[in-house]
Amino acid sequence: MTDKIPELEVLFELADLFKVFGDSTRLRIMYTLFDGENSVGAIAESLSMEQSTISHQLRVLRTNKLVKVRRDGKQIYYSLDDDHVKKIIEMGLDHVLE
Amino acid sequence: MTDKIPELEVLFELADLFKVFGDSTRLRIMYTLFDGENSVGAIAESLSMEQSTISHQLRVLRTNKLVKVRRDGKQIYYSLDDDHVKKIIEMGLDHVLE
DNA sequence: ATATCATATGAACAATTATTCATATGTTCA
DNA sequence: TGAACATATGAATAATTGTTCATATGATAT
Fold this sequence. Notes:
Chain A has 98 residues and is α+β, with helices and mostly antiparallel strands. The first copy, chain A, has helices spanning 8-21, 24-33, 40-47, 51-63, 83-96; strands at 38-39, 67-72, 75-80.
């Protein structure tokens, strides 16, 4: 019960983390990566969105250490970088689906 | 693994849910309620924030079914309305604290 | 080298949002 | 009824953010 309240600084980081999950485009990108790595172009095509949009959002995910990168020739492959990602999303789904 | 990707509509709801967690004031309010119900004024005072700010944010939490309300005389008491709240927050903390 | 392909990045714009101020609503007590 | 208290609400403002367009960077192959 009586959980210790984190420092304000930590709460800001926590809020920032949840902000990352608070955008449907980023959620869709993460779902795209549930099955394994994927290239930027492939993600963009599979979501029918602009390459630039995906690239911008991947940067957000990267900055927050939710995805990691691998380059292979001209293409750059992204994959999930955190075990919690799926868990956090599924926990949210539990709530949404009642 | 191969989780089924939720409908777009569900993904929007999911994003909306995470948006609620993506604000430090709301996180602080939720932490305030970890130990049990609390009145608006008490929350405002304990966070040293304006009553109006807290009230606005409590409405967001209420709308998203994360807190529930009880009136007792002049005061209105809020409490967490969902078992997932703590779990979602703690899962996020796990990531933030590495 | 240069053309081509894949991705990243910066600027601009529209849309969303958190907070504040002022005020309204609703409750209690005299 | 009226005063005092607790909370809610609307309007206004400042700040943040997602997308697009145009362009830059980096890699490959000819």
